User: Fold this.
Amino acid sequence: MYDKINPISPELLEKMSEKIEKKSQIDLDQFWKYGVKRGLRNPDGTGVMAGLTKICTVEGYYIEDGERVPKNGVLKYRGLNINEIIEACERENRFGFEEVIYLLMFGTLPTKSQLDLFKETLALCRDLPDNYIEDVLMKNASMDVMNKLARCVLTSYSFDEYPDDISINNVLRQSVQIIAQLPVMMCYAYQVKRMKFYGKSMYFHPEKKELSTAETILRSIRSDKKFTDEEAKLLDICLILHAEHGGGNNSTFTTRVLTSSGTDTYSAIAAAIGSLKGRRHGGANIKVTNMVNEITENVEDITDEKQVAEYLEKIIRKEAGDGSGLIYGMGHAVYTLSDPRAVILKRKAKEFAYRSGFEKDYELIASIERLTPEVYRKVKGKNKIMCANVDLYSGLIYKMLGIPGDLYTPLFATARIAGWCSHRMEELLTGGKIIRPAYKNIALPKKYVPMDERIENYSQMSDYIPSDQRVYDLNKEG
Assistant:
């Protein structure tokens, strides 16, 4: 009896993999030939228009005479500029994430009484069902907290009296519950991982209903339960900035795709978590941290921009880093001149770093931001406009807050859940059709070969020939 999935032998796996690679390759020219928009992107890099939304606006360029013209990035939640939201929270010295959840879900800023009631409701919903920690979180511990979160959300289906009811009032109930519980699930899942894989003690602190989401998270992951108001409000800003980013980002689009099929809330949100985990999406924040640590370890003087630039060249040439050739934290699918989230986090990171002894960490990341565009031009020979994205500075903030790397991407999920749930309800109300894009089949027609006539490694012409260009032998059947 095995306690792990029984592996296929390496030799057989290698043999089967080679066959799949050989049969699954498609020449990129074929995509151009048939006008396929890879990644649902237009030839100029803009996203294919797949729907309408009132929830969020993401702007990074404008179109003039058919060309994409770069501009400073703009992010709006329900029409409100994110800078105004952050500035109000800082000016009034208060937490804002719960207000943003309300804004995204209900479409308007809450009054004080509405917000107080909403906060009370979220606090009430944080409690997990009886025996949930023992039966769901502590059994079958996961090396990855994101996978554990997806499993927790799916398992919550079993605790719901009306899990498949997709009426708006029921989905709203489920959404508020998941939004409230996901941070708690995250913190508990991390404690279980600490015990199971790091051999460290677990600590589960009783919830305090009067605390904000940011305060709850910091209190839960610290053994002494202590944190400063400044720390909690810095994390609160991170949650606000990660809460939503339009219907086209991969995890939100995943939510809308699953919602369009008529499936339950738990399935849709678990799928979104799986999407966010990817290194090309939410998983990029821990990739930034790993990259910065590697540069620190391998560059003799990280204050020497020439040395840093030389190492960045190695990363782009795939001679260093994770072999992807990517400078994580730089570039974005929509933003060109600036990512408004990164601008805000850079300012906050600098303020906090110079007060808490992390100025060298900050300056290294700032130099990566400055140097990458020129290094990219030097290596690739292309004038590509790129800016820092939200991931470049969020990891530094988490590090300064003492948040373990295991929670970087899960923290993203605990914020973005607000956007996912808002889009789920909007899709239920306005979508109307199952999302189903088309894929063109370019496999050649084949005849069935009887078992005793088949041979191994049979090769045949595999280039696709359009139907009107094929030559048929009319004297043969088929």
The first strand starts at residue 56 and ends at 64. The chain is about 55% helix and 5% strand.
